[in-house]
Specification:
Length: about 350
């Protein structure tokens, strides 16, 4: 019997995690879209996810909110049982996902990718969705574990005695008048300095005014010109010739370049495009593009290049690009939080567009 699983500890109450598991809109944001079919069955659109060959036809066989939900799944001729268990902890709860293959087989590589897909979804997108829900569902109950906010308690103004209320109003009005007076005083012009006429231009230097100097002092303060124009003008006669690159060393061909662009976005991810360009050189050039996704992002599919994902890094390769030609590939990313990757390099050089 083949079994895979993933587990994550979450700082959220069990009922909030249960809501993210069972609400179709939220499930689509952190894992995949789901459709309700006849007789209460679900169709999970997992085709293209790492470790999945096709959509999964699922039927709920056990449901105990907010502790456990179990599904009987069929996918590409295989049958499996998927169980999601929620266990309370001192910090929140622990979510464990366990899938047991009952009929058929998973190749070793597919099993690894499937397990990684579960773990990345729990560690990345599910955490983000739960944090978002925490802001939407603020818990104001006092003294309970998981309290997210507590409003301060203040004395109502109507309950204050009349004499005290009058003193408070007088103090507030006095403070406001004092503030307005100080503000007005700071912006008034200095009459002794500027007079009654229009404001002069701002003083740009602290040196004495030129009007207080005598003409003789002004003339004496000017520097004498002792150098002739010919002395100050640089000589046009070259003193030596710059060394030239020896003709025996040919110039290096410009490296192959790449440009990234997000060509479309959607609620649960985006589509990226990379154009690999071999603008120079006389021969075809090899290339390797590495795209760094945000945490929890996964590649659903790609066209125009071979790819493999290792954590957040996705490596794309393809045939050499002929001189003066370009090659384009696209890839679909499942990520409900971002609309572009964190980075992109081609042959260890940055891509344009990011």
């Amino acid at each position: 019997m083949i079994e895979i699983g993933a587990q994550v500890d979450l700082p959220h109450p069990a009922d909030r995690v249960w809501h993210a598991l069972t609400d179709r809109g939220l499930l689509a944001r952190w894992f995949t879209e789901a459709e309700v079919e006849a007789r209460g069955r679900l169709l999970l659109h997992t085709a293209g996810l790492p470790g999945f060959d096709a959509a999964v036809d699922a039927e709920v066989t056990d449901r105990r909110p907010p502790e456990l939900i179990a599904l009987h799944c069929q996918e590409a001729g295989r049958r499996s049982r998927l169980t999601c268990a929620i266990t309370p902890t001192t910090e929140g709860c622990r979510l464990s996902v366990r899938e047991v293959l009952e009929h058929g087989t998973w190749p070793a590589e597919q099993r690894v990718h499937r397990e990684q897909c579960y773990q990345q979804a729990l560690d990345g997108r599910l955490r983000a969705i739960l944090d978002w829900l925490a802001f939407q569902q603020v818990d104001l109950r006092r003294g309970e574990v998981g309290m997210t906010a507590e409003l301060p308690v203040t004395e109502a103004f109507d309950d204050v005695p009349t004499d005290r209320r009058r003193r408070v109003l007088i103090a507030v009005l006095a403070a406001a008048a004092l503030t307005i007076g100080v503000s007005a005083w700071t912006v008034l012009p200095d009459e002794q300095e500027h007079g009654a006429g229009p404001n002069p231009l701002p003083v740009l230097a602290t040196a004495p005014s030129a009007t207080s100097r005598s003409p003789e002092a002004t003339a004496a303060s000017r520097p004498k010109r002792t150098a002739t124009p010919s002395d100050l003008r640089p000589s046009r006669t070259p003193t030596g010739k710059a060394s030239r690159t020896p003709a025996s060393i040919p110039p290096s061909a410009p490296p192959v370049t790449a440009r990234y662009e997000t060509v479309s976005t959607r609620v649960f991810g985006y589509t990226g495009e990379v154009v690999v360009d071999n603008a120079g050189g006389a021969a075809a050039r090899d290339w390797t593009v590495v795209v760094t996704l945000s945490e929890g992002g996964t590649i659903a599919s790609a066209s125009g290049a071979d790819w493999r994902q290792d954590g957040q890094a996705v490596t794309f390769t393809g045939p050499p690009v002929p001189a003066g030609k370009a090659q384009t590939f696209r890839f679909d990313v499942r990520d409900a939080l971002t609309r572009a990757p964190q980075g992109c390099t081609i042959n260890d050089n940055p891509c344009a567009g990011l």
